[in-house]
Amino acid sequence: MEKGPLSELLVERFETMPPQLQVAARFVLDDPQGVALMSMRKQASQAGVSHSTMMRLARWLGLDGYEDIRSLYARALRERGAGEGARANPLPQQDPDYPAAGIAADTLAAQIASLGEYGSAMQFLAAAKLIAGSTTIFGLGFGPSRSVASHFVQTISPLLGEDRKAVLVAGAEALLDAKVGDVVLVVGSAPYERATIDFARQSASQGAAVLAITDSSVSPLARMARETIVVTSNSSSFFPSMVPAFAAVEILVALATPLTDVDAVEKFKQSQEQLAAFGVYWKAAR
């Protein structure tokens, strides 16, 4: 996910902000293009705060007014170029002759492509190093996020050495032995499942490193994580999209595996052969 000119400052000061300013700050963090293009009043409406709150946010950051924030973000958007700026979260105006499926697919493709931008790439590399140096890797997520955590565990398990394992967390008992040297990969986006936050916080208190795949750099999961990968959950429909999160775990596994001394190709081949020997895969009758 792209970052705006004030992202680092907003994240640094987020915990000390009053609640309403946190809401406004999160909007600025999550939609830098909207900050550049929309009026202050429209931004306030979308953020769910008053326009005076947006002005107070600017003063909190040491600026004279909110127009200073918009100017900074507009300049950053121009520098990115019109082509890059077009790859934003909001959908383009629908042409009645353009298939809805094409628009939805283009939106998802742009969201996945944004994971390769410099800021996201650095997040992935740091997260991959964390995973590569871990002993036990836990996959944590509830609700829609559980399928992403499960996919991560299933994908990385066949690639781990004999002295390492990956565990999908079904309940608190799975994390009783989480400790220093372990990693808890936690997946969650707004609205956040209470159990996800509680389990991740407890794991961190036991010394395990929390690696968050979440929808904001100031989400409750990001604020307790050792490393964070920010993905969008916006979609062209009424439900949140899990596609960017699925893409993120696959990128993460692809980056982490070469950092270990395991021959991933051979390990994966052996795993597939073992499953085939157990008759897991369907075969057509001869």
From TrEMBL:
It comes from Mesorhizobium hungaricum. GO terms for biological process: carbohydrate derivative metabolic process. The keyword tRNA processing does not apply. The keyword Membrane does not apply. GO terms for molecular function: carbohydrate derivative binding; DNA binding; DNA-binding transcription factor activity. Signal peptide: none annotated. PANTHER family: GLUCOKINASE (PTHR30514), RPIR-FAMILY TRANSCRIPTIONAL REGULATOR (PTHR30514:SF18). Residues 4-80 form the HTH rpiR-type domain. Residues 127-265 form the SIS domain. This is RpiR family transcriptional regulator.
